[in-house]
Specification:
The structure holds two protein chains of two kinds. By secondary structure, chain A is α/β, with parallel strands linked by helices. Chain A has three helices and twelve strands. The radius of gyration of chain A is 18 Å and the shape is globular. By secondary structure, chain B is of the alpha/beta class. Chain B is about 30% helix and about 15% strand. Strand 12 of chain A pairs parallel with strand 5 of chain B, so a sheet runs across the interface. Chain A: This is Glutamate synthase alpha subunit C-terminal domain-containing protein.
Chain lengths: ~240, ~500
Amino acid sequence: MAKQVTIDAKGVHYTPLNQQIRKAVEDGVDEIVVDNVLGQRFIGNGLRGNATIRVNGVAGGDLAMFMSGPTVIVSGNAEHAPGNTMDSGKVVIHGSAGDAVAHSMRGGKVFVRGDIGYRGGIHMKQYETQRPILVVGGSAQTFLGEYMAGGLLLVLGLDGAMKAREIGSGIHGGEIVIRGDVDEACLAAGAKKLPLTDEDRARIAPVIQEFAADFGLDAEPLVKADYTRIVPASARPFAGKYTWE
Amino acid sequence: MNSNFGSMPLRYRISIDREQCMECGRCVENCPYGVFRWDGERILINSRNCTACHRCLTYCPRDAIMLQEHPCDYRSHPVWTRGVRESIYNQARTGKIILAGMGSVANLPIIFDHLMLDACQVTTPPTDPLREPVELRTYLGKKPSKLEFTQKPNGDVELSTELTPNLMLETPIMLGHMSYGALSLNAHVAMARAAKETGTFMGTGEGGLHPGLYPYQDRMIVQIASGRFGVNVDYLERGAAIELKLGQGAKPGIGGHLPGEKVSADVSKTRMIPQGSDAISPAPHHDIYGIEDLPQLVNSVKEATERKKPIFAKIAAVNNNAENVAAVARSGVDAIAIDGFRGGTGAAPRVFRDHVGIPIEVAIATADRELRNQGLRNEVSLIACGSIRESADVIKAIALGADAVYIGTAALVAMGCRVCGNCYQGLCSWGIATQRPDLVARLDPDVASNQVANLIRAWTLEITELMGAAGINSIESLRGNRDRLRGYMLDEGLLEILDVKSVGA
């Protein structure tokens, strides 16, 4: 039988709160419910294993940073940089999230139902079997996928037009897929637009289906929708800038 | 379209004394740059490929090879120097930013050389380090502002103040951050062994931690730089301390770029990026866009490692150094490394290397003073780096306020580096700054680690002697003790900034 514990975060500083969560994971708890979270930072930081942490409330900055394995589900919003430098596991945010979501993420999944702030998916990178995935249900802000070096960044735009400009500046790996058309003027130097092929669609379909299932959405119309795929114009965006002494 | 410049004057000329030469061919085998080649029975020379790495000279059994720098004169001119002219030719041809290896070549006065150390004479006696202990053991990390004790019923007294983790160094000399990727694995292993043998620590740089270094992990300071290469929770847990690289003295304000050619299979594993892909470290950490974001990153790393390890931050020395240091000190870090404008690098834009930043001597002095003024000096240790060349520099840096130093180039020189500045070519003939297996194999980690350890031991002995001569028996009494320094031919403004008196005063 799955082992569950509930932690009340009301008025608790993040350090003792995170110690309680870490201890629960070490004790082999499968599901940790953290109630009354009000901006406590670093929840799930550096945690290993495969526990599920349910965060009821608003998570503070650097949620699940360096996390390697667990699943974190946030009922509300999350602040700055959830999924920062995350290794593996999954973060599901039912609200919106702040800037630098999935910054330098190298594996696992971050799903945000609402909007994300600036610099979403910045410098995501992949290596061998590790391929990070960031999916945004709403809109993303400017500098989306900046310096991106690997992985998949998917923006579904369920709540209106995409706001991001300067998309993919310095991108040198990975792909950004955005539902609908993206004006060429919104692309930064180093990024180029490609149509989504059937193979691409087959590759992203399971991701869309998983996202839809997590948030109770109908996957079918989203899988069939029109998408714009944005990829690096060159694997070496800065190679032409330098000469040797 | 080619330029009309033709070929530039030679930078170096290699000549062979044909009477001495016995055509053994060791120069041909040893030169990775292609200066020598066989033409039948005769060895031909292409001086244009020479980098002045000296490998051929050192392996010529007959001392038959000679190297001359700048064999061809330009018309001498104090303003339009050779360097200026050649840079213009380069940029007129390419239209690009000039990259260069190693630290600044700007011919500016070195403040360390204008600071004289004190010694005791008749009014106070010197300490004899042979007879009396001179304590160099150094602890890096936060020190409590006060200590509280509780008395037990049996009368014993116990410390009740909770102490934060510190690093214990047997000598205030550490090996600075130079990444695996920029350097070879053999160079890294050699330095790691030397750090272990001499009771000090070594920085990983931003290149992850190769499994070959796991045996020395309790002597490694693992670095998190803006590219986050090789960073995961395993890496953080292995290190003795964790350093956030916020800046580099050789190129303040900009990031770094390891070209895909240097990302070999092994380098790709430790950096956790695909083989052959460029490793781009952005200028800022993109999760630090303001001073309030830095404490968040510091605390995030602390939470991820359960507050068991000291967290360092490294910044480049720039104009508002004192404010930067105070801001970093308030972020919760345990030590701040300040990298002066002469700091080394595998590659940096020439214009940054030679023109951006301030000297380490000034940066340490102003940092120490600002931290004391703000009541923060006990909150952080200060590490001076960027052109620490000899034991005198170490002791002067400590007297100006540092707790310890990082050495980089000096450790490379101890392994054979000739400071040729061609690290970026990836062909280091000494096996230090290369990934080419045949070149890496030239550096024997056993031999090289002994040389690096010897350098640290020798400097430690010299520091002990200098301290003894000054009647100082503990490094704590030297730290920030500017009264033991005097400025020679330094202007009044600089003396005031350094808080050092003039010679004679």
